[in-house]
């Protein structure tokens, strides 16, 4: 859940204050390091220490509203960088003399810091509008406004069969109150006799949910008045509940998806904390580590969808870290963004050659950081989604459901727990295509997939095995319980009506179920479920058969 804006501002102010409080000590540390360097100008370790201290300041200064510190720190770090990384020799007398004044100015600025007149942080107002928290949890809730509830009882049942929660309202007033209290994913308006019903007002603070018109007639005037009333969808009776819910899905705001996970690796605590707060306030979940050697552990445990690396870190550079990650097959698709004080385009491009995706320069504006992270994380998530999902139904594709079955089986064996598998096939599906057309057949497949997703637990795995055949893997579920669950799916689906060319029809399914420990291998489980499904078909379809125990 997103933190509220006030607390985000407080956190940003706290990090900024902490940075300012530490500045004098950081300045004195640089002073001490510089005098050690002057005594032993050939000692590259001392020089490296000075580089690290000034480099971190160059990044953090501007971030927290001390841009003069950033400017002077950059003037110090650049000659140090060249000396250390390119020449690999100590400082000459002339170089020391030229650096001396700049290091002294830098320490002076740290000991007596002054904020920029227009400090970047803390921001004067919230950076991004906050989303209502309820959008995250109530997407399957739809409200139905109908002057006569009996008119819509069939539709309500169909919507419920497909997994939606339905709130039914007879008056605009009660609907308005309910929207205020719990915003739904959409409001369906059953063709009102009184057009006034279409134009109800909500207080300005309330986000108006998408509205969908359910109309008696398909004439131009009805459509026009629906458009004028701000309706985003228009359906003519008889209403196909699955088509309505498909539209509701497409109208849902993207933000309801689970938050992106970003791993931040930066040895500078204040910088890492700043990036973390900025991203968290935009709804992104972050985890921060200061020691790059912990990255492998965090990759496995946190499973980040994007990596944000500082470039210069003493134990291991961000570039080396990116190379390590890119050598690991599992994480080859995880975007990497560098966040560094480096402004030289050519060196940024060198860093990007590791297979990283973007190079952002510190100090970075919050909005820029959030956009860059969001765009890349979203693209990576979409690509991953497309790779594992069936394009028609959005369920796992054949390869992935098989992989999940094998994983679940191995886990059940290790933990000695129950596991059930159901093979489901829609009955006489060829007839649906033949009678109503292929696109109606597709709509039935989508509707059934929705029903499966909504009716099963989060932990159950649902995939399209092929054509009109589906595979459901139910971890921690006994055969008896799985039978109850699949039977509930079967009866709900049989009661759901679809429409085609104005006609109503329904479809049934047959299912075969098998369970571990009765079946001793993943493929044995699948075969047993398949044989049970075949029996269900043979015995007349529209039924669930449980596999006989194996000898
Ligand atoms: N619309 C649509 N039809 C599909 C899709 N995939 C497979 N089918 C159709 O599903 C039908 C499956 O037919 P059959 O295997 O003969 O089985 P059935 O008609 O369901 O009969 P039983 O399984 O014996 O009850 C075929 O007509 C396929 O063309 C799809 O993605 N969309």
UniProtKB/TrEMBL annotation:
Query: Which superkingdom, per the lineage?
Result: Bacteria
Q: Which cofactor does it need?
A: Mg(2+)
> For the GGDEF domain, which residue ranges apply?
417-549
Give the PANTHER family listed for this entry: DIGUANYLATE CYCLASE DGCM-RELATED (PTHR45138:SF9), REGULATORY COMPONENTS OF SENSORY TRANSDUCTION SYSTEM (PTHR45138)
Task: Output the Gene Ontology terms for molecular function.
Answer: diguanylate cyclase activity; protein kinase activity
* Catalytic reactions on record: 2 GTP = 3',3'-c-di-GMP + 2 diphosphate
Q: EC no.?
A: 2.7.7.65
Sorted keywords for this record are: Phosphoprotein, Two-component regulatory system
Which residues does this entry mark as bearing 4-aspartylphosphate?
Answer: 310
Q: What are the Response regulatory domain coordinates in residue numbering?
A: 141-252, 261-377
Which GO cellular component terms, listed alphabetically, does the Swiss-Prot or TrEMBL entry include? plasma membrane
Q: Write the protein's name.
A: diguanylate cyclase
Q: Which SMART domains match?
A: GGDEF, REC
Q: Which InterPro entries match?
A: CheY-like_superfamily, Diguanylate_Cyclase, GGDEF_dom, HPT_dom_sf, Nucleotide_cyclase, Rev_trsase/Diguanyl_cyclase, Sig_transdc_His_kin_Hpt_dom, Sig_transdc_resp-reg_receiver
Mind listing the GO biological process terms from this record? cell adhesion involved in single-species biofilm formation; negative regulation of bacterial-type flagellum-dependent cell motility; phosphorelay signal transduction system
